[in-house]
Amino acid sequence: MDRRLIQKLMICGIIFVFFGVNYSAGIGNITGYKSNNTNDTTSSSSFTTDWWPMFHHDLSHSGYSFSTAPNTNTVLWIYTTGYRVCSSPAIDNGKVYINSYDNKSYCLNAETGIKIWEYTTGNWVYSSPAVTDGKIYFGSQDHKVYCLNADTGTKIWEYTTGSFVMSSPAVADGKVYIGSFDHMVYCLDADNGVKIWEYFIGDDIVSSPSVADYNVYIGSRDGKMYCLNAYNGTKIWEYTTGSFVDSSPAVANGKVYFGSYDNKVYCLNADTGVKIWDYTTGSSSIVISSPAIADSKVYIGSWDSIGSWDNKVYCLNADTGVKIWEYTTGYIVISSPAVADGKVYIGSGDHKVYCLNADTGVKIWDYTTGAFIDSSPAVANGKVYIGSWDNKVYCFNSSGGQPPEKPDKPSGLIRGKVGVEYIYTTSTNDPDGDQLFYLWDWGDGNNSGWLGPYNSGVICEAKHIWYVKDNYTIKVKAKDIHGLESDWSEPLPITMPYSYQPTHQFFEWLFQRFPNAFPILRQLLGY
What we know:
Radius of gyration: 28 Å
Number of strands: 43
CATH class of the largest domain: Mainly Beta
Largest sheet: 6 strands, mixed
CATH architecture of the largest domain: 7 Propeller
CATH superfamily of the largest domain: YVTN repeat-like/Quinoprotein amine dehydrogenase
Distance between the termini: 24 Å
Structural class: mainly beta
CATH topology of the largest domain: Methylamine Dehydrogenase, Chain H
Number of domains: 2
Strand content: 35-45%
Number of helices: 3
Strand order of the largest sheet: 1-40-39-42-43-37
């Protein structure tokens, strides 16, 4: 008997058994299927890691992340540089970028603290890095602005200003904005470092620019806050305070927030520069710290200049400037706060990193480093990163827990046709019972982004369409709510050789809806 006829008879027999015995239950599952995950696949959110790629998180300098954040002072790792770390870290794509007074810029593994590369400039590096499009930008005391390859640390370009560069860059729309002690605000081409425009300001610039609504906002030691046109550098407005403005502005909801050496925190209209409110900290304090804005609150630190002991962290109402709470540290607070997961993180000159309740100001934990801290914390992927004058970079973990177990090998069709959406499933368990996110690598250069959260042990479904006939490998990994990641699953090799053929529709539909059923039938048809 012809082999093809035998195959067809066997296939018909299997189909008859399935539908003859299980028709009612099977159709019920097909039309009413729903995962036991409370977040059904059709509505499951795509969770992307909220990295911290520049000073104070984003172009508007909000200082806020939607990442989970540590409830304890558990140290995951410490990395020692050659001198003080005043720079604030940038976190992107699993890497920590931070600069040091040992003249170097460092790239570290965000999970382990292992050095990936270092780059040596000509002098101290106070400026904090910004990372975007595979490049890292920062300034140095050697008067230069640098652009390096973010993966290798290879220099792409440098631009020489007229003096120290302590300001931290903002990179937007292919342009790098940064200030210098030569009294200039610079706009450089992000690809080649060519100057696009410069604007002269009346004194040194320590403040770091924020960019919002096509405007650049920056302070200066001439006592003013400036608003410049981002495209051509034309001044839109300026506002005069009572002293130096080293604080970097934060822009939110049409308002600009910053501090001044005149012991005040200011809120201005972002379009006009008109003052909305100001708040006076201690009588002899100065405000160098840059504000964080979250949940209609302003968080900022201050420092005692002549013995008033106003070494505090303040929380103010963002609309009115009314004080909500204050917390007193043991010494001056130059560090700028980071807000995440209902908590405020900040460093102090008393050598400590503090974690405070964002609503009440009650201390949750502190950690004592070996020296003064003016570095500002960064929060990403469930961890807090900060530098100290003890030459070290610290990483605090969300918990002392364990990562999820390796997910099951993906389950689903191993042969299909291009242009059709296929469903694959997996699951795993978390030793601590934490909720999980899943990241699917489809083998074609695309991934799912982090999907979830799912309860531990609950099946995760994901869908994908391949558009090119080829062989692919699917794999998946899990991450708990604290950012701890599993290993990749065992790979599932698949092939997408078929063009559209109506004779295959039924079997593809059948195998897609019941990915773990009919192993003999799959083998006969080559799926």
